[in-house]
Amino acid sequence: MPSTAVRQKKTVSVTLEPALLEQAREAGLNLSAILSKALQHEIRTTEAERWKRENSEGLQELNRITEEHGLLSDEYRTF
Q1: Contact 74, 68 (CB under 8 A)
Q2: Is the pLDDT of residue 74 over 90?
Q3: Is residue 9 part of a domain?
Q4: What is the pTM of this model?
Q5: Which H or E element spans position 65?
């Protein structure tokens, strides 16, 4: 039987401008859902940038090799 992870949520305090909070409430926005999605996006973006920094030497070397020798698929490309 596959195990299922139970997701628990934590209550946190967030400080907002009163007018912004009022507008969000009037619009019926789910602040928790919006914050969760925004944080997920920021985390993915930050991790992608970190990965690029950590792997920049390898990427530069691959680019150098490609410039020097071309791609293995060059003879098969039709464009």
Answers
A1: no
A2: no
A3: no
A4: 0.67
A5: helix 56-69
